[in-house]
């Protein structure tokens, strides 16, 4: 099974307090396209009040270079966002965040879990009409910081809900970087066996000392779809630890290379993109 890398400039940028100029976003994302990632999570169609950094997504998406190798992902929080996303031919995948935590779901989308399930149904119907793929990001998959009940069985129950709705790509998120390696391994192992028709991805938020063990747990359990962000930028705004960010793409590529995985990436463009990320995003 080949490995898929999803580079996430949208996730890296969305929490920055200083607005990244539209022209800089376009230059940076186009350089990431040159690298040849499988997917770029690059824009979102959500409330500009909630995520002001992404208020120019409609301008950014129209200025991205076409690519035969890289597909574009847009994140939405409701049906209206999905209806906006399907207007752009170069968006092939639309993602929706759903949380195992009822509190986090309310904070993230201003809807309850029950309301959000209905939103997923409506969004999938809209995407099916336009031949767009849906990826469901299942957050708080590996623990809950809000003192709500959490268990592996609870995660499996929610996966079944979305599997029954026909969702075929589900990314499991360690939203605040509190996952235990054994839980990552166990959850991926169970899901790979129970749902062979579903592609499960790992969206890991990590700290400098624990990224490799978390990544190894997911990879050993059979996960072959990984999200990363250049320089490890981004992460959940509710994380209290400033060192908790996205899994850095540099570390991801280093790990996969050690496993003998052959990645068809333009590493010269990768290095240029990394320097751009440092200059533009900080």
**Outline:** globular
Fraction of residues in β-strands? 15-25%
Uncertain residue segments: none
Which structural class do you get from the secondary structure elements? alpha/beta
As an assembly, this protein is single chain
Number of strands: 9
* CATH superfamily caption: Aldolase class I
Mean pLDDT figure: 94
Task: Assign a percent range to the helix content.
Answer: 40-55%
Return the string of H and E elements: EHHEHEHEHHEHEHEHEEHH
What would you say the CATH architecture is?
Answer: Alpha-Beta Barrel
Instruction: Give a quick account of the main beta sheet: strands, pairing sense, barrel closure.
Output: 9 strands, mixed
* Topology-level CATH name: TIM Barrel
What does this structure look like?
By secondary structure, the chain is of the alpha/beta class. The protein has one domain (4-281): Alpha-Beta Barrel (TIM Barrel), CATH 3.20.20.70. It is built from eleven helices and nine strands. The termini are far apart.
């Amino acid at each position: 099974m080949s490995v898929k890398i999803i580079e996430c400039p949208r996730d890296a940028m969305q929490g920055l307090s200083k607005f990244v100029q539209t022209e800089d976003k376009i230059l940076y994302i186009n350089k990431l396209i040159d690298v040849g990632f499988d997917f770029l999570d690059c824009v979102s169609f959500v409330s500009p009040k909630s995520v002001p950094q992404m208020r120019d997504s409609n301008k950014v998406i129209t200025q991205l270079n076409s690519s035969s190798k890289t597909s574009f992902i847009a994140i939405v929080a409701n049906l209206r966002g999905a209806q906006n996303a399907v207007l752009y031919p170069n968006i092939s995948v639309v993602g929706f965040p759903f949380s195992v935590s009822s509190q986090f779901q309310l904070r993230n989308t201003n809807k309850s879990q029950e309301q959000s399930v209905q939103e997923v149904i409506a969004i999938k119907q809209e995407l099916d009409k336009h031949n767009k793929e849906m990826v469901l990001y299942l957050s708080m998959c590996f623990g809950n910081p809000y003192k709500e009940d959490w268990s592996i069985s609870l995660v499996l129950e929610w996966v079944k809900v979305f599997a029954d709705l026909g969702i075929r790509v589900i990314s499991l998120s360690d939203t605040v970087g509190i996952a235990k390696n054994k839980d990552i391994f166990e959850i991926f192992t169970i899901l790979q066996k129970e749902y062979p028709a579903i592609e499960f991805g790992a969206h890991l938020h990590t700290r400098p000392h624990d990224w490799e063990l978390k990544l190894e747990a997911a990879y050993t359990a059979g996960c072959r779809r990984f999200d990363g962000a250049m320089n490890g930028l981004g992460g959940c705004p509710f994380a209290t630890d400033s060192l908790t960010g996205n899994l850095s793409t540099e570390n991801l590529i280093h790990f996969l290379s050690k496993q003998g995985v052959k990645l068809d990436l333009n590493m010269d463009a990768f290095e240029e993109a990394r320097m751009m990320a440092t200059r533009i995003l900080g």
